[in-house]
Structures are given as C-alpha cells and as structure tokens.
Amino acid sequence: MRIIADSGSTKTNWYILTDEGEVEQFETKGLNPYIVRTGTVYKEIKSNFPKKKFSPLLVKELYFYGSGCSGSVQKNLIFAGLERYFPATIIHVFHDLLGAARSLWGKEHGLVAILGTGSSTSLYDGKNVSEQVPSLGYILGDEGSGAYLGKRLLKNYLENELPVPLAKKFHKTYKLDLSGFLEHVYKDEYPNRFLGQMTYFIKDNLDHPYMLQLVEEAFDAFFEHQILKYQHFLHYKLRCTGSVAWQFQDILQASAEKAGIDIDNIVSDPMPGLIEYHNMFLEV
C-alpha cells in the first residue's frame, strides 16, 4: 500500500493506493511548513486518516508533495510529523512544484506553474526542477494567485475604489467593516486562505469589466515576475495546474499570448497525472 499526497496552502489531498488497485481518498488542511508545525501535521493525519479501513502500519511508501517544502529544514518538519503517524513507512517529502512537473510533463521538459491560493513556477528537465524563480509568498509576491487577487480586491474595496454596484455586493457578501477585515488579514492563522477565498466573488462577478481587468492585470504581473525571468522561456511550453489557473483559464491563455508564452495544458488537479507517473515509473 502506498500514499501520494499533494499539499497546497489551503488543503492536502491524500490518495491511498492499495496493492489490489483500490484507491481511497481523504483530505486535511494545507500543511505548508512555513505555517504549520510538526504536531499539526501529525494531528491532521490522525484525525482524518481512514484507520477503520486501513492500518497505517501497512503503508509501505508515502510520497508527500508540499507547498513550501523546498529546503531541508521545511522538509524535515513535515517528515517528522509524517513519521510519527507512519512509523513503518518509507517517506519521501518533495516540493509541490516537482509533483506538478511530474504530473504535467512526466519525463518531458517544460515550464510548470501552480496557480492556486499561492503561485509558483519552475523549469523542469524531465527529472528534476532545474531552475526556479522565487514566488516570495502572498505578502511579497504570489502574482496571479488567489491570495494576490483577493488582496487586490480587498484593498480597492477598503480604499473606496470599487465600482458602487460591486462594492454593495461585496459588503453584502462579507458583512465586515474595516476592523473586521483587518482582523482577518493580520490576526487570522491563515490570512492567505481568507484572501484566496475571494476568488469565488471574483468569479461570480466576472461579467463586470472591473473584475475582468483585475484578473487580467494579476496574470500579466504573474508572467512578468514569474515566467519572463527564465532565461530561455521562449524555448519551452508552459503547463499549469491549480484552481485559479483552471477557473480563469481563458484569461490566463490571453495573458500568456500577450507575453509570447505557449500554454498547451491546464488542469485543475495534478493528482491524476501524479498517480499515473508513479504507476509508470518506479524511481522517485
């Protein structure tokens, strides 16, 4: 029995693959090591793992692909939490960009982008992430992400720059005053998730020119800061995954064309491709 996990800033999708070919899914919150601690990783798995059906002692290997898992310190934090619940398991912790690359490209070369609550990109050589432009997180970067879109929208609302019809809808939706919003942004445990959830409001009102322009400008900034900085970006096609890339794919494609980038695939969830990768290739 093996487990493959894909962890973003908002949620982690876990897939249990049995030796008989059965697939079982469960979900926990996002386990970004810059946000959570080792104990949180253990508690989330303990609370959600289907232990009545499967024993954690029977899991042979676990492949965890997580947002923020780029450095050894961050990987070790996640590893320690996983090891507490799966003591008999061979555990591999990778950056989520490698998971997206393996899902989208298999053994081919190309550019990879994750556009969800956060955003990140890399160049993939068919085996490893060979080059990466840092995304800097939702405070300093994450252009084109859900948190970036939400931050722009909320700032404009609080500065009375939203068109009146949209401002009224926004107020009716969230029912918060200035202090309420600031409480969420500066004191919430996961402010990036609070901001990222505003993409639902954006999507529901995308027929308004203001919203269309907001998304266009966010994607233009994404290409400027996270794709065009790759030295040979014109030599590669781009493949994207994530909820924001999927929901706003027409606008993303149009922005890519303006930047001279060829996007040849956009998927909402990298997991199907990742499972296929691990079924095809034995090495990690």
What would you say this structure looks like, in words?
The protein has a five-stranded mixed sheet with strand order 3-2-1-4-5, sandwiched between helices. It has a five-stranded mixed sheet with strand order 8-7-6-9-10, with helices on both faces. The chain is built from 13 helices and ten strands. Helix 1 runs parallel beside helix 2, helix 3 crosses helix 13 (271-280) and helix 10 crosses helix 12. Helices cover 46% and strands 20% of the residues. Strand 1 (2-7) and strand 2 form a beta hairpin. The protein is α/β, with parallel strands linked by helices and 284 residues long. The protein has a domain at 2-100 and 271-280: 2-Layer Sandwich (Nucleotidyltransferase, domain 5). The relative contact order is 0.14. The mean pLDDT is 90. The protein is globular, with a radius of gyration of 19 Å.
CATH architecture of the domain at 2-100 and 271-280: 2-Layer Sandwich
Structural class: alpha/beta
Q: First CA to last CA: what distance?
A: 16 Å
Rg (C-alpha, Å)? 19 Å
Share of residues in helices: 40-55%
Number of helices: 13
Major sheet summary line: 5 strands, mixed
CATH fold-level label of the domain at 2-100 and 271-280 = Nucleotidyltransferase, domain 5
- The dominant shape is globular
Give the oligomeric state: single chain
Give the helices and strands as they follow along the chain.
EEEHEHEHEEEHHHHHHHEHHEH
**Could you tell me the strand content as a percent range?**
15-25%
